Amino acid sequence: MSKECLNQIRSRRSIRKFSSKSIDEREIEDIVKLGFSAPSAGNRQPWRVVIVSDQEIKNQLSIAAGGQTFLAEAPVVFVVCGVPEESAERYKERGSSLYVLQDTAALTLNILHAAHLLGYGACWIGAFNEEEVSTIIRIPSNMRPVSIVPVGKIEGKLPEMRPRRNLSEVIVRERFE
Are the beta carbons of 84 and 96 closer than 8 angstroms? Predict the structure, then answer.
């Protein structure tokens, strides 16, 4: 893996200040396509992505996300939804309770990296009222919203990397003692 690639991955930050500049439809599609290259258990791909650019809907999502107003400032918001029954078809309860969440998390991370690689900022929002978000964007009852990702051109400078735990605190070799 090239140092440039590693540096690109390391340089991604959660962005909460966006300019009002719109995102080209082709780049939105590129972000989603890269998102969909994420792995999923049994290649079930138990996900849907709602792309929101309507300001009123973004305002409502911002309220449903506990008043995280930066969400409404982004020109585009991706709402990643999981479809538990699609994972459960093959993996039963573990599919519907775990794999669907892992799969949509992988998709979300790919969206974050795709946006970053295309020169945009993004932020993974997991703190929101599921029922409210489902109502706002009319998510069918067999699906659930898992993450919200506002994307846009970064306003201001890139934030500093937040501290990370030391590897010795989080890595266990072979097994726990």
Answer: yes
For residue 20 the two structure tokens come to 């009002």
The C-alpha atoms of residue 39 and residue 50 are separated, in whole angstroms, by: 19
pTM of the full structure: 0.92
Structural fold of domain 14-155: NADH Oxidase (3.40.109)
Say how many C-beta atoms besides its own lie within 10 A of residue 43's C-beta: 8
Q: Which residues contact 90 (CB under 8 A, 6 or more apart)?
A: 41, 42, 44
Pick from 123, 120, 129: nearest CA to 148: 123
Nearest partner of 150 among 10, 3, 17, judged by Cα: 17
Q: pLDDT (tens digit, 9 = 90+) per residue, 110-132? A: 999 999 999 999 999 999 999 99
